[in-house]
Amino acid sequence: MISKQIKPFSLSVRGKGFFVSKRKIETEKRIQTLMMGMRSVGAGICDLATEKGGLEKLKIELTERAETEKLFLTLALGVLDSLEHGAMDFEQAYRLFLRPYISQYLERLGSREAIVEFFSDLCMLEDVARLVPDHLNASIESSRQEALNLLKSIAADEQTEKFWVNNFDEQRSREHPFFEKTAVIINEWNPAGIDPLLCEEYDREVLEAVRILVHNESVQEIAIQIYDLFKHRFGITFYKRLADCEQVAHDLAQLKTPCPSLIHSCEKGAAPMDFKKINSLTKYPSIQTYHQLGERGRLNDTLTDSVGFNESNQAYIYEKVDGENSRIILLRTPDDEIDYLIGSREELLYAKGDRIGNPYGNIAEFLKPLAEQLITSDFADQDWALAVIYQESYGGKTKASKNYSDRKTQSYRAFDAFTLNQEELDRLLSLPPEKIAEWREHDHQPFYVDEQKQSLFERLNLQAAPLLETVNGSDFPASFEETFAYLKKFETTQVGIESAGKAEGIVVRTADRKFIRKIRFEDYERTFRK
């Protein structure tokens, strides 16, 4: 059995009948990915289905390290096949599985270094696809063979192997931010006319209503599924009509609608701001490696895009902190108040007033006090419509926490910022999502120049990523060996909380950030090991 300090791994898949429901896409995608992985190792998987007409949730729960490793490797094989054949893109792969959390979890679990490193390297495939796409297929094939070899190295054990699919643990749904408000709406509606009504009488139905709400946007679709749910559960004692369900569906849908403070109005009657667009335009862009990425995330002795520092530029050398990329997004409302969102690199995790609630990485909970501090600072009085401050949230439960803290203490370091005026924000929000992503990936986010950024962080009393030194561009090393030797000057972190271990690396940039590259110990060490 695994250590009591490590929670058993569980993977939940939700859907109203895997093969009969209109709302089964994500569930099927996860199951199909698992099936592709099983096919890759010559195994099979039986069909999964709920009982007729029922609403059942399923999960995979494992308590043995070897079984958890088998599951992850099997899923990795399925993801690799899906990426290679175009059945999934990298954004989908990230949402469903391909995250640093996997290697972090396996490291805490005590897995072999080879397995932990495999999943860490797997997350770099997106960089290979973006920076050196000609190497992607070879990297996928190399990763697939490594996953198969690792899977074969885990001995079969009849005593620990068990059927992966188990009953759904309701606890997570009860902790969902919609649960309590949904319970109030359902209890006030009292669709079965229960008298006297106990506070937990509709608990099972509330759990299902939360699932319906999370996975549907249309009020009509929510109404239909709510009607089907109560009709199935209560039969003739359920006396409500579909029209009654539509009103309840409307009330439930309001839980997902941004509060008025996030309604952006250039003119009367403007629609609520699109969270997806806000998320896209404020995502922090990927930073390229200084030396070119080759197969399996190893470096070549060639500068990326054959570009380095020129003689006229100063090179600003910052420590690269190893944690979770995060952001605080400030939005000015029509009544000149300041609203805020908190996000990770890919997702929005929290909106002021609990309109979004995602506990991922404890980022939102940790950064809320900082966000509240920012909206009352003199920065809020400046002439901008949107402002973003980027931080690395580190320590705590992050992968490299031991390099910064021996008590799992969490901290942050701010490293970049930009603002948009009202006209710029309006123009961007009028664009389709793909155009916003294109704007971002082509380096059009108007980041502060270095002096302006440092001044802002000092004025707001923010903890900033340390500027280690500045050098003339002509003096910055270009060769692989010289760069690695230069990097070793900064081997010990400058942002230790209770302890100071190994730094992740450095970020080098020009003052205007038009040229920016990352130089990480693991990339150079991995390359020297080959």
Question: What are the defining features of this structure?
Answer:
530 residues, alpha+beta, six-stranded antiparallel β-sheet, four-stranded antiparallel β-sheet, 19 helices, 15 strands, globular, disordered N terminus
Explain the layout of strands and helices.
Elements: E1 9-14, H1 25-40, E2 57-62, H2 65-84, H3 90-96, H4 100-109, H5 113-122, H6 125-131, H7 136-152, E3 165-167, H8 171-174, H9 179-189, H10 203-215, H11 219-234, H12 242-253, H13 275-282, E4 291-293, E5 299-303, E6 314-320, E7 324-332, E8 338-344, E9 348-351, E10 356-357, H14 363-375, E11 386-395, E12 410-420, H15 422-429, H16 433-441, H17 450-459, E13 467-472, H18 480-487, E14 505-509, E15 516-520, H19 521-529
Antiparallel strand pairs: 1-2, 2-3, 4-5, 6-13, 6-14, 7-8, 7-11, 8-9, 9-10, 11-12, 14-15
Number of helical regions: 19
Share of residues in helices: 25-40%
**Taking all residues together, what is the mean pLDDT?**
81
What form results from the Cα inertia axes? globular
Distance between the termini: 35 Å
Largest sheet: 6 strands, antiparallel
Regions with little confidence, pLDDT below 50 for 5+ residues: 1-6, 12-24, 39-56, 259-272
- Report strand %: 15-25%
Strand tally, please?
15
Rg (C-alpha, Å): 25 Å
